[in-house]
Amino acid sequence: MDTIAWITSIATALALSTFLAIVAWAWSRARAEANRESAMLPFALPDESAVAAQGKDAGQ
Hints:
Elements: H1 3-26, H2 32-39, H3 48-59
């Protein structure tokens, strides 16, 4: 194997190990609460009718 092939192989192995480390971190028990909180963010928005009423009051 020539030098470029070795460098490519090492870079591929490093990239794969980095990816697997990120996946393991994201799915770890330490991140469970943060993941649950992030999953609920879209539902934490104010009600559209309340926002429209506030905009109407501010315009008068």
